[in-house]
Q: What sequence folds into this?
C-alpha cells in the first residue's frame, strides 16, 4: 500500500473545468434547469489570466499575447496547423505556472535558434540576391559606367548627338500627323445657298473673292510660305556658317559634308531627285543669306546647282562668293575648278585669288596646274616661292619640274638652306648626290634635325650601298644613343616596321642592323624577352619579311645561346625560307652551343642526310654518340640512315652496339623489325624473346612476336603470343584487337567478341576497342548488334572522331549521312577523320568543290594523318589535274605522315619497307574503301 490517495478523492487541479478539452465547460444534470453554458471567450480568458497574474505579482502568461510578435513571425501564422490550436489547447483553463515557465523557456530557445539561423539565412539570401542581380542586372546597372562617362562629355559633343529615332508605330503616327495637319474650313452660307438653288454643289472656290465670305487659299499659302521662310532665316542666324536647324527638327546641312556628297554623286554619275535638290537649295540659300561671309555655303550651293545641271548659275553663285568672301581659300579653289573649261578665265580668277591670299599654297598649286608648259609652271612656282619660301610642297614641285641633275642639286641645296627642318628634302638631296657628298649632306641634316630617325636610317642605307656593311651596325648604335639623348626614340614595334620597309626596298643589311640595335628597346632582362622575340619573328614571317625575322632570331640566339627553342625556330626559318647551306651552318652552331640537345643532333643528322651528304651525316651521328652516349634515339636514327643506304650489316652492327651499351625494349623491337623486313623471321623471333625476358610488359614486343608467328603461318603460337601479351600488358588495346582479328580469321567469332569485351573491361572508354567491336559485328552481318554497341560507344566516347566516322560511313543510310556528320562536327570540333568523312560525302554527291575544300581542311589540320592524304589523292586521281597530283605527292614526302589505319597497315608491312612515301601512298590508295 502506498501513501498516494485515491484518484477520485484527490482535489481537482487549479482552474480545472470538466469537459473543457471537448469544448464544454460543464455538464447538465437533473438539477440543472437549462443547457450547458458556453465557455469564456478568448478575450475573457486573457483578462482572467492577467488579473490572476497581477494578484500573484507575476507577469502575464506569454501564451496569450503578452509578448509582441516579430515581423518575421507574422507570415508564419498562416502555416499553423488548425488541429493543434483547438480543443485541449484552445483555452487556458488548465494553464498553470509550470506551463508558463515552459513556454518562456521554449520561447527563449526559439528566439536564440532563430537569431543564429537568421545570420545564416540572411547571408544565404544576400548571396542568392547578389548572384541573381549579377546574372540579371537591371538596366540602370548595365549603363552605370556609361552614365559616369557622360560627365566628361563636352558641349560640342552634346550638340553633335543625333536626334532619337523611334520606329514604333511610325506609319500610324505619320497618318495621325497628316490628319492633324489637314486643315478644314467652314464653307460660308452663301456658297451653300447658291449650291442649293442651283441643285448642285460647287467644288471650286474663287481665289479672288475678297468680301470676307470666301476663303482665299492663295493668300493662305503665301502666308504659310512666308512664315516658313522667317523660321528658316531665324534658325540659320542662330548658328551662322555651319548648320541650319529647322524648328527643332533633325534637319541639318553641313556645307563641307554636302560638298563631299556632291562629289560622290558626280563621280557615280547619278542624278539626285528634284525634291531633294529643291529642299537642299532652300536650305543653302537661307544659310548664305543669313551669313553672307559663309564661304563653304557658297561652295555647297555652287556644287548643288552644278549637280542640277545649272552650270551658269553655279558660276554666278561662286563669283558672288568670291566677292563676299575674298579671304576664303575654298571659295577661290571652287571658282578655279568650275571655270577650268576656260583656262584664261581660270587663270584670271587664280591671279585675283592669289592677290587676296598670297600665302595660300593651295591657290598657288591650282595656278601651277593651270599652266600648260613646263616653263610656265616653273615661272609660277618661283613666284609662289617668293611669297612662301618655307613651303616644302612648292620646292618639291619646282624640283620635279627640273630635268637637269645639276640644277636639281642646286635647287635641293637652296631648299635645304631655306627649309632646314624638312627631313624629306634632306634625304632626297642625299639620294641625288654623289656618295661622298651625300655623307656630308646627311651629317648636316643630322645637326639641323637631331630628332630625326629617318636621317640615321638613310645614312645606314648609304653605307650599305657603298659596300661598307660593317659600318651599318655602328651607325645604328650611334643612332640609338643620339635619339635616346634627344627623347626621340621610336617604339620597338615601330623600329620593326621600319626594318621591314627597308627589307622591302632591298636594304636587307640595314634591316638587320636596325633589328640588332633596337629589338631589345623597352624590354628588361627579367621580361619574357625570348617569347616576345619568337612572336615577333613569327609575325614578320607571316608578313613575308624573312630577313627581318632572321635578324630577330639571330639576335635571340646571341642572347639565349642555350635555348633549344630559339635554335629550332631559326633552323625552321632557314629550312623553309633560306638556303641549304645556311640551314646546315645554323645547325652546326646550334649543336656547338647546345651539345646535350638530342633533338638538335637528330635534326642536324637528318638534314645532312637529306642534303645528299651521307658521310657528313654519319660524322654528325658519331659526334652525337660522344656527346650523348647510350641515347637510343641516336642509335635508331643511325640505323635508319644505314637502312636507307642499304647498308644492312652496318645497321645490324649499330643495333648490336646499342643492345650492349644502351639496351631498351625499343632497341630490341627495332632490331626485330629490321630482321623481319630482311626476311630473317627466326632471328627476329629470337631477338623478341630476348627482349621479353628483360621487358615482359612491353606490349610492342608481344605484338611483334604474334605477328612473326602469323607470318610463319603458326596461328596457334600467334594466338598464344597475343593472349600472353594481353595478360602481361592488360592496358594495351592493340593486343586485344590483334588477338580478336586472329580469332575471327579462324572462325571463332564468339571468342573474338569475348576478347574485345575483356579488353573493354580493362580499358574503359577506349574508342579503338569500341570501334573494333562494332566492326566485328558488322563483318558478321549483325547490324542491329553493331548499332547497339555504337550507341553505347558514343555514350562513353562522345568526342571520338573514329566512332563518328564509323557510324556515318557504315551504319547510316546515304540520306542520313550529312545530318549525322553535322551532329558529329558539333560534338567534335576539329578532327581530321570527320573532315575526311564530310569530304567523302560531298564527293559522293558530286559536289567536287566542297569535297576539295574539306580534304584541304583535313590535311591542313593534321598533316601527320596519313589517311587524309590517301583519300585526297584518290579523289584527285578521278577529278584532279596532273599538276595537282604532283603537288600533293611532294607535300606528302615533306610531311612524312605516320598515323592513320590505312596508312599504318601499308607503311608497317614488310613488303613495302624502304619503298618511299610516294609508293606507300599509291599502294594505300588501292586499299582505301
A:
Amino acid at each position: 500500500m502506498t501513501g498516494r490517495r485515491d484518484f477520485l478523492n484527490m482535489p481537482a487541479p487549479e482552474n480545472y473545468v470538466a469537459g473543457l478539452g471537448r469544448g464544454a465547460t460543464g455538464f447538465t444534470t437533473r438539477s440543472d434547469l437549462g443547457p450547458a453554458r458556453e465557455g469564456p471567450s478568448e478575450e475573457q480568458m486573457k483578462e482572467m489570466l492577467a488579473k490572476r497574474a497581477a494578484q500573484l505579482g507575476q507577469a502575464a502568461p506569454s501564451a496569450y499575447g503578452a509578448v509582441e510578435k516579430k515581423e518575421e513571425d507574422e507570415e508564419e501564422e498562416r502555416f499553423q496547423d488548425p488541429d493543434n490550436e483547438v480543443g485541449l489547447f484552445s483555452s487556458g483553463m488548465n494553464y498553470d505556472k509550470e506551463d508558463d515557465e515552459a513556454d518562456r523557456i521554449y520561447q527563449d530557445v526559439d528566439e536564440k535558434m532563430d537569431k543564429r539561423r537568421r545570420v545564416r539565412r540572411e547571408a544565404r539570401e544576400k548571396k542568392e540576391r547578389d548572384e541573381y542581380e549579377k546574372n540579371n542586372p537591371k538596366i540602370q546597372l548595365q549603363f552605370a559606367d556609361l552614365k559616369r562617362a557622360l560627365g566628361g562629355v563636352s558641349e560640342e559633343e552634346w550638340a553633335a548627338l543625333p536626334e532619337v529615332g523611334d520606329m514604333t508605330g511610325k506609319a500610324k503616327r505619320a497618318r495621325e500627323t497628316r490628319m492633324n495637319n489637314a486643315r478644314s474650313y467652314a464653307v460660308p452660307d452663301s456658297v451653300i445657298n447658291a449650291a442649293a438653288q442651283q441643285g448642285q454643289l460647287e467644288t471650286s472656290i474663287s481665289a479672288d473673292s475678297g468680301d470676307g465670305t470666301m476663303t482665299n487659299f492663295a493668300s493662305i499659302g503665301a502666308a504659310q510660305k512666308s512664315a516658313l521662310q522667317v523660321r528658316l532665316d531665324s534658325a540659320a542666324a542662330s548658328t551662322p556658317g555651319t548648320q541650319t536647324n529647322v524648328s527643332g527638327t533633325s534637319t541639318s546641312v553641313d556645307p563641307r559634308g554636302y560638298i563631299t556628297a556632291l562629289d560622290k554623286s558626280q563621280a557615280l554619275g547619278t542624278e539626285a531627285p528634284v525634291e531633294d535638290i529643291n529642299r537642299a537649295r532652300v536650305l543653302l540659300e537661307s544659310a548664305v543669306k543669313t551669313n553672307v561671309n559663309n564661304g563653304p555655303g557658297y561652295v555647297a550651293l555652287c556644287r548643288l546647282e552644278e549637280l542640277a545641271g545649272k552650270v551658269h548659275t553655279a558660276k554666278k553663285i561662286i563669283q558672288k562668293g568670291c566677292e563676299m568672301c575674298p579671304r576664303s581659300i575654298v571659295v577661290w579653289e571652287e571658282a578655279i575648278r568650275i571655270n577650268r573649261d576656260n583656262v584664261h578665265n581660270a587663270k584670271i580668277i587664280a591671279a585675283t585669288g592669289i592677290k587676296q591670299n598670297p600665302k595660300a599654297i593651295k591657290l598657288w598649286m591650282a595656278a601651277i596646274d593651270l599652266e600648260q608648259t613646263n616653263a610656265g609652271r616653273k615661272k609660277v612656282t618661283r613666284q609662289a616661292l617668293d611669297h612662301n619660301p618655307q613651303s616644302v610642297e612648292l620646292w618639291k614641285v619646282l624640283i620635279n619640274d627640273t630635268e637637269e641633275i645639276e640644277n636639281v642639286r642646286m635647287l635641293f641645296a637652296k631648299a635645304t638652306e631655306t627649309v632646314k627642318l624638312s627631313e624629306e628634302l634632306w634625304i632626297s638631296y642625299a639620294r641625288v648626290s654623289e656618295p661622298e657628298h651625300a655623307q656630308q649632306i646627311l651629317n648636316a641634316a643630322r645637326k639641323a634635325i637631331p630628332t630625326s630617325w629617318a636621317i640615321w636610317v638613310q645614312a645606314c642605307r648609304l653605307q650599305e650601298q657603298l659596300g661598307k656593311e660593317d659600318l651599318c651596325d655602328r651607325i645604328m648604335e650611334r643612332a640609338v644613343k643620339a635619339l635616346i639623348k634627344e627623347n626621340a626614340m621610336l617604339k620597338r614595334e615601330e623600329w620593326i616596321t621600319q626594318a621591314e620597309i627597308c627589307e622591302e626596298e632591298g636594304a636587307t643589311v640595314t634591316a638587320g642592323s636596325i633589328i640588332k640595335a633596337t629589338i631589345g628597346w623597352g624590354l628588361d632582362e627579367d621580361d619574357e624577352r625570348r617569347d616576345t622575340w619568337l612572336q615577333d619573328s613569327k609575325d614578320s614571317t607571316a608578313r613575308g619579311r624573312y630577313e627581318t625575322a632572321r635578324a630577330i632570331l639571330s639576335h635571340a640566339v646571341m642572347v639565349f645561346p642555350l635555348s633549344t627553342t630559339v635554335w629550332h625556330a631559326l633552323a625552321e626559318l632557314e629550312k623553309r625560307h633560306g638556303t641549304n647551306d645556311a640551314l646546315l651552318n645554323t645547325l652546326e652552331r646550334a649543336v656547338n652551343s647546345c651539345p646535350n640537345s638530342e633533338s638538335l643532333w637528330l635534326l642536324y643528322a637528318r638534314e645532312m642526310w637529306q642534303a645528299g651528304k651521307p658521310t657528313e651525316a654519319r660524322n654528325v651521328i658519331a659526334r652525337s654518340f660522344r656527346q650523348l652516349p647510350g641515347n637510343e634515339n641516336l642509335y635508331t636514327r643511325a640505323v635508319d640512315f644505314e637502312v636507307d643506304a642499304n647498308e644492312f650489316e652496318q645497321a645490324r652492327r649499330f643495333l648490336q652496339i646499342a643492345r650492349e651499351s644502351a639496351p631498351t625494349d625499343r632497341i630490341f623491337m627495332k632490331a626485330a623489325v629490321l630482321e623481319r623486313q630482311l626476311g630473317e623471321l627466326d632471328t627476329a623471333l629470337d631477338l623478341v624473346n630476348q627482349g621479353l625476358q628483360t621487358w615482359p610488359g612491353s606490349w610492342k614486343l608481344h605484338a611483334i612476336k604474334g605477328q612473326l608467328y602469323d607470318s610463319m603461318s603458326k596461328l596457334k603460337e600467334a594466338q598464344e603470343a597475343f593472349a600472353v601479351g594481353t595478360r602481361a600488358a592488360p592496358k594495351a588495346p592493340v593486343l586485344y584487337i590483334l588477338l580478336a582479328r586472329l580469332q575471327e580469321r579462324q572462325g571463332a567469332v564468339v571468342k573474338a567478341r569475348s576478347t574485345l569485351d575483356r579488353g573493354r573491361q580493362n580499358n574503359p572508354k577506349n574508342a579503338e576497342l569500341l570501334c573494333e567491336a562494332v566492326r566485328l559485328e558488322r563483318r558478321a552481318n549483325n547490324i542491329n548488334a553493331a548499332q547497339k554497341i555504337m550507341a553505347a560507344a558514343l555514350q562513353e566516347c562522345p568526342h571520338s572522331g573514329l566512332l563518328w566516322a564509323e557510324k556515318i560511313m557504315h551504319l547510316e543510310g546515304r540520306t542520313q549521312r550529312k545530318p549525322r556528320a553535322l551532329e558529329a562536327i558539333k560534338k567534335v570540333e576539329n578532327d581530321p577523320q570527320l573532315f575526311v568523312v564530310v569530304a567523302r560525302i560531298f564527293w559522293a554527291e558530286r559536289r567536287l568543290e566542297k569535297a576539295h575544300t574539306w580534304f584541304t581542311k583535313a590535311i591542313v589540320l593534321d598533316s601527320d594523318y596519313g589517311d587524309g592524304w590517301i583519300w585526297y589523292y584518290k579523289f584527285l586521281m578521278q577529278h584532279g589535274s596532273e599538276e595537282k597530283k604532283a603537288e600533293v605527292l611532294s607535300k606528302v614526302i615533306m610531311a612524312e605522315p605516320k598515323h592513320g589505319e590505312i596508312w599504318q597497315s601499308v607503311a608497317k608491312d614488310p613488303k613495302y619497307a624502304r619503298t618511299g612515301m610516294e609508293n606507300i601512298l599509291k599502294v594505300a590508295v588501292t586499299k582505301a574503301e
User: Anything to note?
Assistant: The CA atoms of residues 188 and 213 lie 6 Å apart.
